[in-house]
Amino acid sequence: MTTRYKLTMAYDGHLFHGFQIQPKERTVQGVIEEALKKMTKGKRVVVHGSGRTDAGVHAKGQVIHFDYPGKEIPAKNMMLALNALMPIDTVFFDSEIVNSDFHVQYSTKGKWYRYIVDQHRFTDPFNRFYTGHYPYPLDIDLMQKAAKDLIGKHDFTSFAASGGQIVDKVRTIYYVNITSDPDNKKIIFDFIGNG
C-alpha cells in the first residue's frame, strides 16, 4: 500500500543542473529522491514534478508528487521530515495527501516566469544569480506595448535546447507584464503561459 503526497516547494537553482534526474549531476529530483530513500531504508521513490527547470533556474511554488510506501504519515509530518533532510537551498512549504488518480503533470494549469533586471550602475554581487543586469535607460511603456504581441500561441523551437525530449514546442502565453520598480532600480518581467 502506498500514499500519494503532493508538496509545494521552492529552491535556489544556481547549484542544480535542473529539476530532472541526470547521471552524475546534482538535480532537484535527485536530492528529493535521496531524502526519500533515507526515509524508506533504501527503497527508491519516484518523484514527479509539475514541470522541469533548466540548470540554474530557481522555483518558488513548484509542485511535486510521489507515492510513499508503507504506513501513512500525516502530510505535515511528511513535509517536516523531508525538510529535515533537504539541503539549505531547497524547502517544502505546503503538503497534502491526495487521491491516487492525482498526477501533478496533468493538473498543472500554467507556469509563471519572473525575470528581474537590475539597473544599478554596477552589478550587485549578492544578487548575481537572481537578476540580470542592464544599467541603461529603458522605455517601459514601449516595452509594455510590444509585449502585448507575445500574448497568444507561438512556436518556441528556436529557444529550446537542442536534443531535448519535448517534441511540440508550441506554447501559449496568456499574460505578460513589465513593470518598473524605480526605488530599487529594477525592471520586472512577468509571463504566464502553459509551458
UniProtKB/TrEMBL annotation:
The family annotation for this protein states: Belongs to the tRNA pseudouridine synthase TruA family.
What NCBIfam families would the database entry show? hisT_truA
Identify one Pfam family in the record: PseudoU_synth_1
- Protein name, entry field: tRNA pseudouridine synthase
**Keyword Isomerase set for record:** yes
EC assignment = 5.4.99.12
Q: Pseudouridine synthase I TruA alpha/beta domain spans which residues?
A: 10-106, 146-195
**Transmembrane segment boundaries:** none
Q: Name one GO molecular function term.
A: tRNA pseudouridine(38-40) synthase activity
Q: Which reaction does it catalyse?
A: uridine(38/39/40) in tRNA = pseudouridine(38/39/40) in tRNA
Instruction: Cite the CDD domains for this sequence.
Output: PseudoU_synth_EcTruA
Gene3D superfamilies linked to this entry: Pseudouridine synthase I, catalytic domain, C-terminal subdomain (3.30.70.660), Pseudouridine synthase I, catalytic domain, N-terminal subdomain (3.30.70.580)
Q: What class of enzyme is it?
A: isomerase
Per UniProt, the keywords (alphabetical) are: Isomerase, tRNA processing
Biological process according to GO: tRNA pseudouridine synthesis
